[in-house]
Every structure is written in C-alpha cells, then in structure tokens.
Amino acid sequence: MDCHYVPLGVETDIFHPWGESNERSQEPTFLWFSRNQHRKGYDVLRSVWSKFRLKMPKAKLIVMGHGILTNSDIPTAKMRRWREYLIYEDVSLGVTFKEIIVPLSDRDVAKIYRSVDCVLVTSRSEGFGFNVVEAMACGVMVVFPEYGGTGDMVFPGALTYGGAEVKADYSDKGFYDVGNWWEPNENEILTAMHKVLTLTAVERRELLRKQLNLVRTSFSWRNTGFSVRKALLTHQTKRSKDYFAGSDVLENINAEWLVGTMESGSSQLLPLSTVISSGVERLFADFDRATYEEFNDDIKGKGVDPLWHFIMYGWSENRFIAQGVLVRDYLSNNNGAQSLIIHYHQIGMTFASSDLNRSMLEWTGGIFKKSVTENRVSDRMLLTGLYKMVLRRDPDAQGLQEHLAALFDKRVSRAEMVDNFLNSEESHKVNRI
C-alpha cells in the first residue's frame, strides 16, 4: 500500500517568538498545558514536580487545561474565577492551577507560551503533539517525550526523555485493549528540567534556533500543503503542456530542499542586507528572460515580466529555465538567486522584511518605467501588466476602462499611471509594505 507522510502544522504567523507576552516571573516558570487525562500524564507531572521543588524551591509551575480543577479534590470554595479561568494557587508547591472555562484563541495561547521559560509535556503517548510544536514556534524551551507522535520533533540537543513500553490504559475514557504506550522515565524528565536552568546563554540561543528552524521547515501549514501536493503528484497525471517540453508532471520544489541545500554547506545564505543592496538584476544576471518565456507559454501575452514571474511563482515548480535546465539546477548553482527567494518567500529561519518587500516593488516599478521610456508596450498591455505584477490580480473591467480612458485623454501620463499603481493602498497591502 502506498503511504505518504503529511505533517500537521501550526500557523507561524501567530505562533512565533516576536509577539505579546505577559509579564514574566523573576523565578523560573514551567507550564503544563493539557487535559486532565491519564494519557497526558498529569500524575507523572505531580510526581516529578514534587521532586524538582526539593532542589529548586523557588521554581514555579502553571498547570493549565481542562478538568484539572473540576475533576480534582480541591474544594470549590478555595477557587476563584478570573476572565477565562477558574484559578487555585498552591503556594507551598509553587503551583498555579488555571482551568480553562472559556475557549482561548490561538493568539491567547501563543501569548501564554511566550510568558514562561519552559513547557513540560509528560504524555504517555501523543498522536502529534500540537503543544510541543506551538511552544517551539514561540521560542520557548520544551521538555517532551522522544516516543510516539512527538518523536517526529526530536532534533540534536532537544530536551527529551524516554519511556518503557507498557500496555495502554484508556479505562478513564471508557475503552480497552488498544495496544501499548509508554510510561515516562521520571528521572530523565528531571534531568531535562534541570538542564533548562543550567544552559548557558549561547546554548540556550542555539537550542531555540534549532527548534524554530525545525518548526518552520517541517511543521508549518506551508509544509503540510507541500507534502499533500507532493503526494498528489505521485498519483495524478497532469495534461501535457507545450511549454514543459512534453513532460506531463510538474514537480514541486519543496521548501525543505532549499533549506537543506543551505544547511548542508553546499550553499551559503546571503544576508538580507546583501540581497537588498545587490539588487534583483545583479543576482539574476544569468537569467535569460526570452528563453524562460519561450519554454513557458502560459505567461506569453499576459503582460508579465518573465523574471518577475519566476521569482514570484515559477521558482516553486520544477519548470524548464532553458533547454535541459530545470529550476532546481538553476537555483543549485546560483547562490544569490536562491538567497533572494528564501528571504522573500520566508522559507526556513527568514522572516518578512518591509525593506525587501519595498525593494522588490521598486524593482517591479523599474521594469514598467523602462518599458514606458522605450515605448515598448501598448496602453492596454501596460495596464494589464500593472494589474498582474503590482496588484497581483486580473484587471476588473470597469477599472481597466477608466484607466485606458485616462491615458487616452492624456489626463494621466503613462509614467504617472505606473506611480499611481505602485503607491496605491492595494499595492502596499498585497506587497506587504
């Protein structure tokens, strides 16, 4: 049976290290965030924490989730309600219990992760482990099991622990005989928790860098989409397209391949400042616009610049750049072009840059200004190109006619029309400026 691995993912526009956080405690703070279910290992957490507090009496623990108070023996009279939570504080153990009674948004959850020093996961088994990936994406250290679904998140230096395989006990959920899971090794959990507090600043930064890189190259929704597409391409046959020289498969270039090329040492990612200062035309000096258009009929007559199309869209499909030269071949041998694409499309450890977006829009405008100066295109072709390359959409009939009339009546010059498109609110929105 054919089997394809498709990772689940998190929304990295929400789960990231640079957002809001609550005021952190001066003491090291751990977070356990789950349901009070036997599989989640709440009993393991309680056992581990009691031992940890003997050596680290100032450490704090936040126990958050569903059923942690309402399913406990703590008297209701000792609890208090605050916003989305039912709260109880055990000062002697340094534990704050927060039971969620109103659903939290993803932004609320991300803010919670960014407000602690470490997230603890004590599960006996996980199908995936969203809290592990979410916390990693938020730049928080995570102690988690190297077995079950969370085994996919293990990387060199990760704060993990093992367990002994035992028969699974789902009696608290009302079903039985479902195979095995693992009993967490409490000593290894304690070791990992102590390591959280003893890492040097350099070791801490390196650990967090690896975590964030793992999430952004393997567990974002972008990766999920790429994996689904790759699986579909294996079993689906596309109709032959002339521009693809008879090939009937349009293979996707996985973002992981670009990052892997960079990390393997075969390519060195250029700094963002170097990419911007070098300029697009210089980085793609060996790119042949005419040949690319010849091999890709789908962009002919559409009013788009071949190089612009390649940077925005063509790079993600293994098209032909020239006779016998595919996208992957071209990018493998062009460090500058590869770096611009990695930065601009936010692949791996890169992130959105207003400076790069503005630089790219200015370059796009330069293409049109040159065509206007040289009087190479008709008014309709100029406008069609501006809609597609600047606003990233097809022209609407009414807008196109109004702009054509303005050019025909000479109420607006062609150069002014280009500037109007570049500086429009819609342009700045779609170009992320």
Question: What topology emerges from the helices and strands here?
Answer:
Elements: E1 29-35, H1 42-55, E2 60-66, E3 80-82, E4 85-90, E5 95-100, H2 106-113, E6 118-120, H3 130-137, E7 141-145, E8 159-161, E9 163-167, E10 180-184, H4 186-198, H5 201-218, H6 221-235, H7 255-263, H8 272-278, H9 280-283, H10 289-295, H11 306-312, E11 320-322, E12 325-326, H12 327-332, H13 335-344, H14 354-373, H15 379-389, H16 397-408, H17 414-422, H18 425-430
Parallel strand pairs: 1-2, 1-6, 2-5, 6-7, 7-8
Antiparallel strand pairs: 3-4, 4-5, 9-10, 11-12
Helix pairs in contact: 1-4, 14-15, 14-17, 15-16, 15-17
Protein described:
The protein is an alpha/beta fold. Helix content is 42%, strand content 13%. α1 packs across α4 (186-198) and α14 runs antiparallel to α17 (414-422). The longest helix has 20 residues, at 354-373. It is elongated, with a radius of gyration of 27 Å.
Short descriptors:
433 residues; alpha/beta; eight-stranded mixed β-sheet; two-stranded antiparallel sheet; 18 helices; 42% helix
Principal-axis shape equals elongated
What's the number of extended β-strand segments?
Answer: 12
- What's the story with the biggest beta sheet? 8 strands, mixed
| Beta content | 5-15%
Low-confidence stretches: 237-251
| Order of strands, widest sheet | 3-4-5-2-1-6-7-8
Q: What is the residue-mean pLDDT, rounded to a whole number?
A: 87
Short description:
This protein has 18 helices and 12 strands.
